[in-house]
C-alpha cells in the first residue's frame, strides 16, 4: 500500500491533485500537511480519514516535515515552489534512506518563470515585449539544466538539480507549470492567480490594460490537466518504475498546452466584460512597468515575461494528453466569477440584463 506525504492539500494545485488522486486511488494512504484550523476542518470534511490523514503544521517546521518524509514512499511537495527550508528538510530525511532498497520518490512543484530568468534579471528589458524562444523538455533537457544553473536566485530549482545528481537513490521529478487556469476541485482554494487577478483589476478600474506592447506570451494549462500529470507520476512511482526518462536528471516536466499573448488575454477580458455591460468599451490601455506593478504585484514577472513550452515528456513517457477546455474558453466565465466576487454581478442576474 502506497504511503504518501503531501504538502499543499489546502492550496489550488495541491487541493485539486488530492481530489483526483483520492478519486482514482482511494487505496493510497495520504498524510497531508495542513496549517490553520479552518483549512484543517475543510480537508478533514472533504476526505475519508482512513484515506487522507491530516498532519497539522507548516513548511517552516523542518523536524515535522522530516519525520513525515521518513515514513513515506512518495513525497509530493506542492505547497510552494520557492521554500528552500522545506526542500532541505525533505532531502535530509530521504538521504538517510540511502540503503533502503525501495528507493523513495519525490515530486516537487516549480514555476514557469524559471525559463524567464534571463528576462527577469535583465534590467534594460521592456516589460511586455515578446520573444521567439521556446523550450522543449525532451529536446532541450541539457540546455535547460545549464540555463537554470546560471541563475542561483532560483534556489529550489538548483537544489533539485543537485539532488538528482548527488543522491541518485532518490527518484525526483520537478513539475513546472505555466499559467494555470480553471476552477479547482480542492476543499479550500479553488481560484488561480494570473487570469483571475487580471480580470479582477480590469473590473475594478473599469478598463482593460496590459504592460508595454503586450507581446509577452505564457503557455497555459487547466488545473485538472496538471493534476492528471502529477497523478500519472504517482502511479509510475507506485509501480516502481525507475526509468531515467521519468526521474532524476531528466525528470523535469514542462506542462504547457496552449499559449496566448498578454494583449490577446487582455482583449478577450475586455470583450467579455463589455458584453456583460461591466465595461463601457473593450479598449485596452498600455501601461508602463511601474504602473502595471502597482496594480498587480509581481506582474512584470507573471505577465510581462515570456514562458513558452509544451509538455513533450509527459505526452511521451506518461501517456498523457490534455482533456480540458483551453484558456480562451474560460475567460468569459472567469470575468463573471470575478464580477460576482466584487458584487458587480449577482448569481441570479444574467449579464444581458445588466
From TrEMBL:
Any one Gene Ontology cellular component term annotated for this protein: cytoplasm
Positions of the NAD-dependent epimerase/dehydratase domain: 157-243
Range of residues in the leader sequence: none
Protein name: NAD(P)-binding domain-containing protein
Record PANTHER family: NAD(P)-BINDING DOMAIN-CONTAINING PROTEIN, PROTEIN YEEZ
InterPro entries in the cross-refs: Epimerase_deHydtase, NAD(P)-bd_dom_sf, NAD(P)-dependent_oxidoreduct, NmrA-like
Domain NmrA-like: residue ranges: 3-80
Superkingdom of this protein's organism: Eukaryota
GO molecular function annotation: aldehyde dehydrogenase (NAD+) activity
